[in-house]
Amino acid sequence: MRTLWIALLLLFSGAKPSEGAGVFTIVNECKTTIWPGIIPGDSFNGGGFALKQGQSVVFKAPVGWSGRIWGRTGCNFDRNGNGSCQTGRCGSSLKCSGSGETPATLAEFTLTALNFYDVSLVDGFNLPVVVTPVNAQGGNCSSAGCDGDLRRTCPSELAVRVDRETVACRSACDVFDTDQYCCRGVFGNAATCQPTYYSKTFKTACPAAYSYAYDDPSSIFTCSQADYIVTFCSNRKNRVCSYHDNRLTCSGTEGGASARKWLMATVLGLWGLLPLVLL
Ligand SMILES: *[C@@H]1O[C@H](CO)[C@@H](O)[C@H](O)[C@H]1NC(C)=O
Ligand SMILES: *[C@@H]1O[C@H](CO)[C@@H](O)[C@H](O)[C@H]1NC(C)=O
Fold first, then answer.
1. pLDDT at 9
2. Does residue 81 line the site of ligand 1, with CB under 6 A?
3. Keywords of this protein's UniProt record, alphabetized (predicted)?
């Protein structure tokens, strides 16, 4: 037994979790299939794919990647990847090469030496999104995004309905097109563009997301080096895990708990029982 532990410890120190390197895990916790759209999408399966309920997928972003990830709902694509969606569509293509149609919740990233990321509802909301950094070094590196589903609390004048069901919530700027809601003209700076009744409704559902254009201090986050788990239809309090390079990493467990979990995964993995851990 003692020998086994020493062997494991050696293995453990040799294969210590490395610092983050732009690995993205995209997880669908929704009750239905979604079709993530990603631009630029060259390293993300061409920028679009179907993700069934409970599925996750792992990608490695290119160095310096700057882009956005959103979810599309209610899609129908033919065998050639041609079709349409109820929300978030990028033209008629499964693989996105341009922005998605609003309203759509966006996860935005700029992976410079310091990574910047946020969840934005400035172009409306279609799905709850949470961005959770893992394997991070420093920065105010916490979970961005939603605690609730704005489709349930969307003011009726902003709601997009299909068969009387709210499938998305438009931004007040999109619906009313005024300088105040769009932060333009005399409202074109952080001092004059203040929260409104509508942006406050958005902020309640997604406290760590942009609810209007100048909502910066509580909405933009930084990490120096990290991997990211982007989860649809979850909330910031849920633990999320990514399995990548024979390694299981979970959110909110940078200390001993994570090491123990990881060791467990390693031990079980050695016995070929890894699928059980993932269940
Ligand atoms: C793609 O589908 C749309 C309808 O969704 C159709 O109008 C268009 O002709 C199709 N394009 C191709 C290349 O099949
Ligand atoms: C995180 O740090 C950035 C850059 O220093 C800052 O602009 C932002 O307001 C901070 N975000 C939070 C939520 O504290």
1. 42
2. no
3. Disulfide bond, Signal
